[in-house]
Model the fold of this input.
Amino acid sequence: MDQLTLNAPAKINWSLDICGRRADGYHLLSSLMQNIELADTVVIAKSDLDSCFCNQLILGNNIAVTAWRLLKQQYHLSGGLSITITKKIPVAAGLGGGSADAAAVLMGVNKLYDLGLSTEQLQQIGLNLGADLPFFVTGGLALAEGIGERIQVLEPVPCCQLLLINISRPLSTAAVYSRFNIANAGLHTDLPALLQALSKGDIDAVAAVRHNALENPACMIEPAIYTLMQRIRAWGLYPMMSGSGPTVFVPANDCEQLITVSKRLAKEYPFVTLTTTRLQGMTFAVISD
Done:
């Protein structure tokens, strides 16, 4: 086996609570995360030299490349790796696109080189690259806690229609966290009630009990997020921000209503798309020798 093609799905945060802060500055989280059908495609192949091609500009370091370098050094892998990323997930959007790509490389190299690493080992390696990585190794619907290292995979819930809107002005995760004040954190998610609401497909109940502690800090930095969410609320829908933003997602049982709203917003925002939640995480779409 010399090449793998992987489907690397994005995620949304149904909830994101900040529970404290460690002495080293890392925030302690409790977040209910789920993969969605919007996905990047990552092709990795054994090569004489290391290379990476991506169809979009990636801000900062490409952690997919860092993931390969980490495995290469730690397990003394010879030769190089060609990485080709076709991105559909917006960059720096709160949807975990970079982490999904890096997880695809970790899982793909593990298979391509027959390293035999367990899920737990891959998650531990991934945590060195980002807090979302351990979730992407398992995917599906899961509760992430601590600094992202504790993953509890949960029973699937019925798929949900989603509308995604991104204002296409990337937000720095560090900048959003810097605006968060634990002393004034306010509400927290009622997780059992949220899971029950999701299992019943009750969007009204989901909106009533879920919470994203980073929503207000993100809106302080980028007021356009608040303006967008207010408009969507006026249409009788429930906008929610994913991760540290700026992507807003809108769940609904009525797909026709989402289609109508998407047509309105597509005239003003460069990224508007319809998708659904996903029952599973990463998939190996093609295996070729």
